[in-house]
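Narrative summary of target 7.
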Amino acid sequence: MKKSLVALAVFGSVAGAAQAQSSLQLYGVVDLWVGSINTDLGGKSVTKLDAGGVSANRIGFKGTEDLGGGLKANFLLEQGFSADTGVGAGGFDRQSWVGVSGGFGEVQLGNTYAAYDDISGAAFTSFDSALSAEAFVFNSTGYTARPKNNFKYISPSFGGFSGAISYSLDENGAVKQNVTSMQANYASGPLFVGVAHQIDFEGGAFDPRFTRINASYDLGVATVLASYGLVSQTAMLAPKTTEKTNEFSIGANVPMGALTLSGGVAYSKDNAVKGGEKRTGVSLAGSYALSKRTSVYGGLNVAEGKTAGVKTSEASLYAVGVRHAF
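Modeled conformation, tokenized:
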């Protein structure tokens, strides 16, 4: 998923916002962490050097051309890779789109982020990262983030209110996938509130629907974070049972000069049709800015799940890492 507004405020823009607007820009992120991870109930921890603790590794090109009359032509090409192995994905797997923008807003065509993704992690704890309390707990993060053959419209801001809608075509592919996604948000001064909804139509027995409500408020000494998620899937054939998962999290970012601490708790509950498991997660992370583009970070994230009082899952991550954006 894309980084939340709060996380970008801590780590800085992926695309180098400090630079002046140019016709062509090269940007990227290299993020590596070392630590211990365990995702098996009763299993052993594995020590890893892995990529993307806070931000997914990427390299990209973005460009803008002034067409006159307030119109601009825009494009973005972005490829992901794993810095720990040097292996890159095929083509511009993360994003590849072209579009136009102006007073009416912006239109993007191609492999671009679904509107839901604009909001999904905007108020997640611990920098919306692998260390977030939500990472091992939430099911509402299992949406299609970058649907292919996507049409996306992003509105301008009206007194702090804005929104977006996107729709992708399956084009009669081997796997049917029409993704309909929308979001609306208000951002003004210290307050941010966002609401998003997405339907992943896969043509199967279930077509999952995702809902997210995120909010944050900057108190000056700390930014309070709160998130709610809902996943709902109704069987297409009788009996038309509905699987639901309700999720909540709350946390805070506390800036202390170059150091920012972030943490919180998350809770997720499946209904009886889905199995009835209850999951809880706790996280604490810190980031220290060595410069405008380079940070070191570390923290922990632990979670467990119980069904009828019996532990059915557990997970933990302890890690330190370094992130550099260019």
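The radius of gyration is 20 Å.
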